[in-house]
Amino acid sequence: MQQLFKLGCVSLALTTCQLTSANEFYSSDRQWLFGDWNGQRQQLEDQGYKFNVSIMSQAATNLSGGYNDDSDFENAAQLTLGANFDLSKIAGWQDTTAALAITKRDGNAVTLERIKDPRASTLGNSQEIYGRGKIWRLTQAWIKKGFDDNALQLKFGRMGMSEDFNGSQCEFQNLILCGGQLGKSIGSIWYNWPVSVWGANAKYQFAPDWTIGVGVYEVNPDNVKTDSDSDGFNLDMDNVEGATIPVELAWKPKLATFNGLPGEYKVGALYSTADANNVKTGEVEDGKYSFWINAQQQLTQHGADPKRGLYASVNAVVNDRDTTAVESTQQLELWYKGPFDSRPNDSIGFGLANYSVNDRVTDRQIATNQSRGYDSYDALASNYVPVQHDELNVELNYSYQWSPAVLLRPNIQYVHQPSGVKEVDDAWVAGLSVKLNF
């Protein structure tokens, strides 16, 4: 994997050479760094085979604050090998598609190394790509079939839950500001990329602007084991503990309603049948639930280009207070696509998001410390339990889209109360995301 990091760094360094032809390796309009394979790649896509090879790298360094303010530099990365298949073209199966993806993650996170109190459970992360083990994983292996001109779509196989429910835009490097929110607070029953589980879902467009979806996904702790690469390819259901069942209603107006600009609005709920521990008493509950809202709206349009302008996204999750340590999350994001005429595909982003820790968890932590003789924060005692409250994450970034194949995103982040611990200094973090499509 280290060789992959080096390859990404070499590719990034060479992008400083501006070339004009799309056939040149580093041209600003090149679709893939490995090119079109002498026309074969586009020909294969026309026949129903679309391939994806990409590397995402996220570097971060702590500038000040945190549990340990000694400066540190950490890099996390992910390799993705994927393919999509249009089976209507390949096999004549009308309105049928399939996907296969394998991923490998590696590296470390500055949040864990410097920013949070190591005795406290982790809330946010300044590098969203870090987590779920440094192993190879089968991330996608599913097939989807449409009926009635795709008004009804059925999907089955191995997948992450936020592919189809609680999905959201990812324009940031900070974890809670990237994508769906459920996996950030109920990760024991809700699995985001790169973890996949056995699942099935159905979505029905019952009106031109309205879609209803329902899914059933296994809750299986074997799927998040990280002891070896074989854990990332677990396909058995021997230790399934229950099912997570989400329902989501989506409104996506065909005729844009906000100053003639498009948007999408979703509300959803889930119930998990897996047993869950009560955060106050420790007793076993029969299940747990969550609710969410996702809203994304284009607010302005720059000139005649419908893609340029100001966008906003609002996301919120409310979890079962009896069984969940994070009671809710709230997120607000703004990004401006095409800020300069010379850079129509770049964007400037600003986002803030909050973890709200369940006060029942806070009370339990206080009681535990008092029983051990601690009346105030002790930075050295190994058996002291840091008392957790809210954690606020803020990010400002600039996305430099050199070409469809190369994205650079320098960013600055601010973390208030890392892991919700008031006694830990607020932290400033500088980061850089790089994505290369080969």
UniProtKB/TrEMBL annotation:
Gene Ontology MF terms in the entry: porin activity
- In terms of domain of life, where is this protein from? Bacteria
What Pfam families does the entry give?
A: OprB
Question: Mind naming one GO cellular-component term on file for this protein?
Answer: membrane
Q: Which GO terms describe its biological process?
A: carbohydrate transport
The record's family statement is:
Belongs to the OprB family.
Stated name of the protein: Porin, OprB family
Q: Which organism is it from?
A: Acinetobacter marinus
